[in-house]
Specification:
The chain is mainly alpha-helical. The protein has helices at about 5-20, 35-45, 50-60, 70-80, 95-110, 135-140, 140-150, 165-180, 185-200, 200-210, 210-220, 235-245; strands spanning about 115-120, 130. The chain folds into 2 domains: about 30-85; about 95-225, Ribonuclease H-like superfamily/Ribonuclease H (Nucleotidyltransferase, domain 5, 2-Layer Sandwich), CATH 3.30.420.10. The protein has 12 helices and 2 strands; from the N terminus they run H-H-H-H-H-E-E-H-H-H-H-H-H-H. InterPro entries: RNaseH_sf, Tc1-like_DDE_dom, Transposase-MT_Hybrid.
Length: about 250
Amino acid sequence: MTYYAVRRFIRKFDNYASQKKKEYTPRLYGAQFDHIKSVIENSYSRDSSTTCKEIANTLRMQNIHISASQIQRYRCNIGFKRTTTKYCHTIREQNKVARVVFAQDMIARNESFYDCIFTDECTVQRYARLVQDNAPPHISAFTRQKLQDWNVEVLKWPAESPDLNPIELVWGNMKTFIRRRKVRTLPELKSTILEYWENLTPEICEKYINGVKKRLRRVVKRGGGNIIEGRETSSDFEDYAAEENEEV
């Protein structure tokens, strides 16, 4: 290769690198971009929780066949960003200490919670321990006395700690399931709740219960403060792995 060929190549590369990157517009859908953009904007104006797959299905019914990943790229170009709403409950300072003590105690005992019934309302049998929140009806003198008379063992739960109770995940997912169905009438609401309940498998419940140990560790790490359900950070995973290796 000659000197001049190398110089032409370098100049061509420098010119390419200095050019501003063009906005992503697939050639196949370039002529239909305005319509696709309009469908995306209208979909999110009606329902901000609309998924890319749902938008792709809408376009498919209009004879525009486009994948969900391409919709995602269009969405980013338009300016929409995917975010998750975070809900946190208030925890007073004295209860943060109680949460840390409870979490450390459960971790030290290697508690599996397999013999616990997590509940707001339920019937109880003798082979299990009852786990309930600290709502006034649950901690009243009458309730405590009745549970004692019935020989029901109650696992003392820290106050302001619904984020540790796996049944709250059930309720949260049920509400999401109902919201996505966009129910409008009471019969629709009842049928949707029953449908969710019928599809709630023991495997799903076991997954929620197995996750309690991770949430306990996060409570300790955050000094008893709020933990936000969802994706843990990489440092969380490193801490979990180190602790599990120590246990082994």
